[in-house]
Amino acid sequence: MIISKKIIDREITWISVNGRTVKAPVYSFDSIVVGSGAAGLNAADLIAAGGGETAVVTEGLKMGTSRNTGSDKQTYYKLTLSDSTPDSVGDMAKSLFDGGCVDGDLALCEAAGSTRAFMRLVELGVPFPYNEFGEFAGYQTDHDTRTRATSCGPLTSKYMTEALERSVMSRDIPIFDGFRVVKLLTEDNRAVGLAAICPDESLNEYGLVLFHAKSIVWACGGPSAIYDATVYPESQTCAHGVLLEAGAAAVNVTESQYGIASTKFRWNLSGTYQQVLPRYFSTSEDGSDSREFLTDYFPDAKRMLTAEFRKGYQWPFDPSRLDSSSGSDSSLVDIAVFSERRAGRRVFLDFRQNPSAAGESFDFSLLDDEPRRYLENSGALLPTPIERLCKMNPQAIELYRSHGIDLYSEPLEADICAQHSNGGFEVNTDYESVSLKGLYVVGEAAGVFGIRRPGGSALNSTQVGSRRAADSILAAITASERSFGRLPEALELPELGGSDSLSDILARRREYARRMSRCGAFIRSEREIIRAVGDIRSELDGFSKYRAADPRLLAELMINRDILITQYVWLSAILEYIRDGGKSRGSYLISDSLPDGEPIELDTEHSSKICRVTLNNMRPEFVWRPVRPIPSRDNWFENVLAGYRVRRGL
Question: Is CATH 2.60.40.3600 what the domain over 496-606 is classified as, yes or no?
Answer without folding.
Answer: no
